[in-house]
């Protein structure tokens, strides 16, 4: 093969290495954010606003990307025109999916004021509801307070105001509100003083915006890699055609 074909092989190999890293990264990061969003967002928010959908789709598309890498490796190593064309076609489909997800996330979570305002309000109401129900269902709030090192919806005072705690004394707070993981008081100095409602919203918003830009970047490189794969397939076809003459 000529210098152009060798260069295309090298470029396609670089793309495959990048996609291996990107696919694993997308699957792992998407899995972590899926878990945290399911843990911290209420079922109503997830069902109504679909906050976990971008993370779930990131895991799925990252897994598919890893699978399609095998086709690309086979096409490059064996100079298989069919494998390269199939690999390129699937990359284009993945690129469209990534660009669609990325555009949706960036527009919805960064530019849609109506959506984000409604989401922030609903999350604040849900976190406050979990605080009010802490005595009967402590797990819903403990998970949020542990992961985000926060306490209450707007702060520890929510527990004092509601008076619904089942704790040893009036100045005590749940262990998930404390740095030592045990029941503590405000005077001890190890109480988390930040409210959880805004942190839950910011985490969900920032996570989905980041996933949006990441999807756009991966989608753009997938289009480039698909074009490189098609070019290499054409070089292989010309090589075999010259042998037939």
Automatic annotation (TrEMBL):
InterPro entries in alphabetical order: Tetraspanin/Peripherin (IPR018499), Tetraspanin_animals (IPR000301), Tetraspanin_EC2_sf (IPR008952)
The UniProt record lists the keyword Transmembrane helix: yes
Keywords assigned by UniProt, alphabetized: Membrane, Transmembrane, Transmembrane helix
Pfam families from the UniProt entry: Tetraspanin
Top-level taxon in the UniProt lineage: Eukaryota
Name of this protein: Tetraspanin
Topological type in the membrane: Multi-pass membrane protein
Entry-linked SUPFAM superfamilies: Tetraspanin
GO cellular component terms, semicolon-separated: plasma membrane
Location in or out of the cell: Membrane
CDD domains: tetraspanin_LEL
Homology family: Belongs to the tetraspanin (TM4SF) family.
Location (main, coarse): membrane
UniProt keyword Transmembrane helix, yes or no: yes
Membrane-spanning ranges: 12-32, 52-77, 89-109, 210-237
């Amino acid at each position: 093969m000529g210098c152009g074909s060798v260069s295309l092989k090298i470029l396609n190999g670089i793309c495959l290495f990048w996609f291996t890293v990107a696919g694993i990264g997308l699957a792992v990061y998407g899995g972590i954010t899926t878990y945290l969003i399911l843990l911290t967002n209420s079922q109503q928010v997830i069902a109504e606003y679909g906050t976990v959908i971008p993370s779930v789709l990131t895991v799925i598309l990252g897994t598919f990307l890893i699978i399609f890498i095998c086709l690309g490796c086979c096409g490059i190593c064996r100079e298989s025109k069919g494998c390269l064309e199939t690999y390129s076609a699937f990359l284009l489909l993945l690129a469209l999916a990534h660009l669609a997800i990325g555009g949706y996330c960036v527009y919805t979570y960064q530019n849609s004021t109506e959506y984000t305002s409604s989401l922030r309000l609903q999350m604040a109401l849900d976190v406050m509801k979990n605080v009010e129900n802490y005595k009967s269902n402590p797990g819903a709030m403990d998970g949020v307070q542990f992961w985000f090192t926060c306490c209450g919806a707007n702060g520890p005072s929510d527990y004092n105001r509601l008076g619904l705690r089942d704790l040893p004394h009036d100045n005590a707070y749940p262990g998930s509100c404390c740095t030592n993981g045990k029941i503590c008081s405000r005077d001890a100095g190890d109480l988390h003083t930040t409210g959880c409602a805004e942190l839950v919203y910011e985490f969900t918003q920032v996570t989905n915006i980041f996933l949006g830009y990441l999807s756009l970047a991966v989608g753009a490189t997938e289009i480039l890699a698909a074009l490189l794969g098609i070019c290499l397939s054409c070089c292989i076809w010309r090589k075999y055609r010259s042998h037939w003459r």
